[in-house]
């Protein structure tokens, strides 16, 4: 819960950083080494709230409980974003439909949390290797890779032509990568917990593999941050952040449950309620999008254009209208003038 609170405020601060970036003149904008990543003080403050402060809390949570139990608690992020977003982002508002959809998502993630696996596992590097060779894990990882790459191709080549599917896909990419990152993060947390408790020390026996696991976690975390910020840059925070949170929960619970075999102890009732919870969560995601007509937020930065627009004075024609107006040519009738002079 503490991690979710920090993440909600961090998402809002990152959105504020993108709005600040769009308002600056092109020559004075901060560098963006990767899509969505803005090297500004405000953006770094948001990243610290999202990525640094929650780390010790996440390590403790993933080391003490199953991933399918820990991940759904992230629904707190969704509610807090809808509450604090409009207070800090004046151009964004939350409708009653958004609130209703958010409540539906919370119900869904609560169902997955209550009926998810509560079993704790003590895993070392050998156990993690064995889990990667599990056939359902291999199938799930292939499915995740294919769908993520397909979604990236669609948003890159279709963009705004996707309509309501565009924020849906950006949120899925960030959430799916986050779900994969959580798998590795939980594995790294297990190794750290084992080393601290003295059960085993894989950092000594297999340092390269242990460090590779941590490095892969960092790479996925950077990719996740990049796509989160691409979504925050393009869409309202009160729309995108709940979408992303919902997909993170769905992907984290599903892929984590498959990899760590947390579904193996499910009873038929647990399976039915778990699937129902995921279905309710997806229904809430649809509810966030169904009445949206203006999807892209004000912080979108078009390449080569300034964020400032020409002011319009009420009652006067615009410069474009003047340019399109037919020219009026004045001529003097010399004969008429000469008659009048006489």
Tell me briefly what this model is.
With 342 residues, this protein is mostly helical. Helices cover 70% and strands 0% of the residues.
Describe this structure in words.
By secondary structure, this protein is an all-alpha fold. It has helices at 2-23, 41-52, 54-64, 67-70, 75-88, 96-115, 125-132, 135-157, 165-197, 202-205, 207-234, 237-259, 268-289, 319-324, 334-341. The protein is globular, with a radius of gyration of 26 Å.
The number of helical runs is 15
Distance between the termini: 97 Å
Specify Rg, calculated over alpha carbons.
26 Å
Helical fraction = 55-70%
Coarse structural class: mainly alpha
Features:
342 residues; mainly alpha; 70% helix; 15 helices; 0% strand
Explain the layout of strands and helices.
Layout: H1 2-23, H2 41-52, H3 54-64, H4 67-70, H5 75-88, H6 96-115, H7 125-132, H8 135-157, H9 165-197, H10 202-205, H11 207-234, H12 237-259, H13 268-289, H14 319-324, H15 334-341
